[in-house]
Amino acid sequence: MKTMRPASLQDVMRIAKETQSSHETELTDLIAKSVNKSAEEICKISVHSYAESDQDLTSKLDDILTSRIFGYPVMLLLLAAVFWITLVGANKPSSFLFGFLFSIEDYFVNFLEHMKAPEWFIGVTVFGGYRSLAWVVSVMLPPIAIFFPCFTLLEDLGYLPRIAFNLDTFFKSVGCHGKQALTMCMGFGCNAAGVVACRIIDSPRERVIAILTNTFVPCNGRFPAIILLSTIFLQPSIMSAIGIGTTTIWLLLSVFLGVIVTFGISLSLSRTILRGVPSAFAIELPPYRQPHILRILIRSFLDRTVFVLVRAVSVAIPAGIITWILANTSFQGMSLLLHLANALNPFGRAVGLDGFILSAFLLGLPANEIVLPILIMGYSSGGVMVDITSLNALRALLVSCGWTSRTALCFIIFSVLHYPCATTLWTIWHETHDIKWTLLSAIIPLIIAISTCFLVAHIYPFPGVI
Q: Does pTM surpass 0.70?
């Protein structure tokens, strides 16, 4: 039997000389390709499969989950299932937390009044800081407490590397690395975590592309606003089973929008300022494992849920205080927040939004979770966040401020595509040590978000309230 030898160093150097390639990354790719090709040839000659039953469980599952026919539908179904479980499971806990946290607000007010605290202090601490805190916790905690364990379960099963394997062809076609799929998956939980995960990409050029485009993956902090607004404006029934399904579809569409823009911007960057040849993608697919439920719950709760929630709360309180001060400090007969909203209103109207929405995104730079609470605080006439007890009450408030289904759609698009939060920007600077990439990571998404909202605002056929 003829035997095949692995590619020698002379073979690799000959290939490198023929291709006139001296770049370290390209030479590493040549070595990997040569070794893999030799291994495949040896395997074809030496390994024989005599029966289908000889295949182990991992091979059988991979024949389905990594196939070109079934692999992608399974990915979509799993993603839809995770979102649907998150939506349905978070509904009642979120309502309970919302009612509980706002019900004890009066006790804080009575206590401070009993201590003869000045009115401005009560406004800053309760109507500013505490209400912002209550909004973030009640709206954000239940979804992430469900989403992260589901995500960790897929990771513990060994399925996430299969996602990277399936999507490698697409990333290769736009000049990127297949491991970017894994960084995108991390971005669903937190974009800052997704940026840190880009360290697994060896090529500096492809790592920068992954960092610059990770913000287009909607993080968990943007999901609550997307869910609420699609529930209120973009489906026929708010609480029906069909309505919940429609909300899941809108959430999936938001994710697909971010993924499509990620591919488009990655292609543009790889052919312009980050031009280069895609590197080879070598990944070891681990065997499927039986998940350890207790470990999944502990790890997802401590490492992800608590981390993200603490980060959101730590910025929600000061942001709520600043917003309350702006809403209750007058200048020339108007609040500073109203001055800011009026200044931004013409531009906001041009892109299907308004001045208060743009002000909320601007003041919500510390964290995406607080954009909607800040917006509600700005819309309330008293300069405090309104105690919204139901989705119908929130809908009534937004409609009274001129919202339509087109406004909600543009808000969702802008939320998915706009610049990353302050924590992610700081993380990008820390990972790249370059102010140029940090600024581009904010400017590129902002331009894309404004351009997309402008197009939608002028072609959307149903501007009225649905």
A: yes
